[in-house]
Structure formats: structure tokens, C-alpha cells
Fold this sequence. Notes:
The relative contact order is 0.08. The longest helix is centred in the N-terminal third of the chain and has 28 residues, at 8-35. The protein is mainly alpha-helical. The chain has helices at 8-35, 43-58, 66-73, 79-85, 91-107, 113-127, 135-144. The chain has two domains: 8-85; 91-144, no CATH class. It contains seven helices and no strands.
Amino acid sequence: MPGRALSDARKLQRERQTKDGLLIRAVALYRQETEANRKPLSLHKVCKQIEDEHWSETKMKVKLNPCTLRRLVNGGTLKSIRNSEKSWLLESEATMVIDYAIEVACRGFPLSHRRLKEHVDNICRTRLTSVTHFWVPMRLSNSWN
């Protein structure tokens, strides 16, 4: 769809998603090669093969790191998955916050940082009921200021 240029953050997000998908394909290919009766491909050759396949499909050049592939083959996790696990909000909760901001904007009310913080605090309080009631307001107020 023609329109506005993508922001740098959105471009990086798309690159990361593409690279993550290619790394998952590379891990599957490497494991398939090691299970075969013949000599398996090296990590470098697996990365090169996946890069070449991606180039022939999309004409986009992506560089895969064999050290990252080795880490993933040995049971590591993707950086994007690890970072999403550290998030305060789940994906569905982040969607709720975005929907709230859109709803407030459609009604014509100004969305202040304070109101947004109250909404996020309520979401966190409902999910984090096992945490003491003193900790959540203190921790959230420190991370939002």
C-alpha cells in the first residue's frame, strides 16, 4: 500500500522478525542435516544456504551469524523472545492499552500520561494479585517517571 515511509523502529522490527524466521529455518535445516547418514553441513554453510534461499525468494539480503545459530541449536532462545518475557505487559494487555488510547482519541478527550499510567497500573494490578499492594504502585511509579 503506498503511503508514508516506515519509521526506523518499524523497519528494525521487520528486520528482526525476518531474521528470527530465517534463524528458525536454519536451526531446523541444521538439525535435519545432523540426523542424516551423510556428513552434515557446517553452521556457516547452513547460514549461507538459508541466506541464498531468502535472496532468491525476496531479493533481500540478510546476514545470519553462525555463532547465533550455534547458540540456538544448543538450546538458546531468540533475543526477541527473551526480551518479550521481560516485559511488564503481555501482548494481549499491550493491545488493550493501545485500544484504550484509540478509544479516548476517538471520543475527543486528551490522553495524558497520568491517565495512561492509571490504565496500565490497573491492568498490572489485576494480573499481579500475588504481589503485595505496596510494591506495585511503588514499582510502577518508578518505572513510568
